[in-house]
Design a protein that fits this description.
A hairpin with a 2-residue loop joins β2 and β3. α2 packs antiparallel against α6 and α6 crosses α7. A five-stranded mixed barrel has the order 1-2-3-5-4. The chain has 236 residues and is an alpha+beta fold. The protein is 39% helix and 14% strand.
Length: 236
């Protein structure tokens, strides 16, 4: 037993072992206490990048919390450049290995776990956990761990597709009344507050016809955007 402990926390494997422990602690705390750090950060940043990725960051006066970051799901449609330019190599990797289409921390945890397993077993069977060759084993293990991650996480795609970010059955917002939490007009997105069976939920909204709608206006949710990231609303 002590020998296995030495292997897991050897100079070769200690980095992945510590990272895995941190992830395990994170998931335990999240499951047991429902950890939720409300940062209340107003986000109004124009980022000049080649990829348009929506990570639930509270546009126009919204807020971003810890669970949003941890469970943020990057949709395939958002990774494709709006200017229809070809995908970059790292975008293709994200899509192929399921870092896109599933909550990032979920896929990331699977990746670190499989990488750790392969590294520990590889250094154990080659007796390289205490020498420089072990670092080569760990680096080489990165590639097969990605493929194992893809295999293990693919069955979860249909499961997460039918859930919202909080893990509950998706709510049908269409036809409901909402209260605007910011001014919107044209293609500008904002936040709105919806009361669903006594539960207050925040959603991203956009004016259906582009007309100006003001803070605290009562609006009607008409339809959902094609990328399922926000809703079109009109004055009720």
């Amino acid at each position: 037993m002590e020998n296995y402990f030495d292997i897991i926390f050897s100079q070769v494997n200690i980095t992945l072992s510590v990272l895995l422990i941190i992830l395990i602690v994170y998931w335990l705390i999240t499951m047991i206490s429902g950890l939720d750090f409300d940062l209340d950060i107003d986000v109004d940043v124009d980022v000049d990048v080649d990829v348009d990725v929506d990570m639930d960051t509270g546009i126009e006066g919204g807020s971003m919390d810890f669970s949003d970051v941890a469970n943020a799901e990057v949709d395939r449609e958002h990774v494709v450049n709006k200017r229809t330019r070809k995908l970059k190599w790292w975008q293709i990797i994200l899509i192929y290995f399921n870092f896109v289409g599933l909550p990032f921390m979920f896929t990331f945890t699977f990746w670190i776990f499989t990488w750790w397993i392969i590294s520990v077993l590889g250094t154990l069977f080659t007796f390289s956990y205490d020498n420089s060759f072990g670092f080569v084993i760990v680096l080489l293990a990165l590639v097969p761990s990605l493929f194992f991650t893809k295999i293990l996480t693919t069955p979860f795609k249909s499961f997460f597709r039918n859930l919202n970010k909080d893990g509950d059955k998706a709510v049908d917002f269409l036809g409901r009344q909402a209260i605007l939490l910011s001014n919107i007009s044209g293609e500008k997105l904002g936040n709105a507050e919806v009361n669903v069976d006594g539960n207050i939920m925040n959603i991203y909204v956009r004016s259906l016809d582009g007309s100006a709608l003001n803070f605290r206006d009562n609006v009607l949710i008409i339809k959902q955007s094609d990328d399922k990231n926000y809703f079109f609303v009109s004055r009720s």
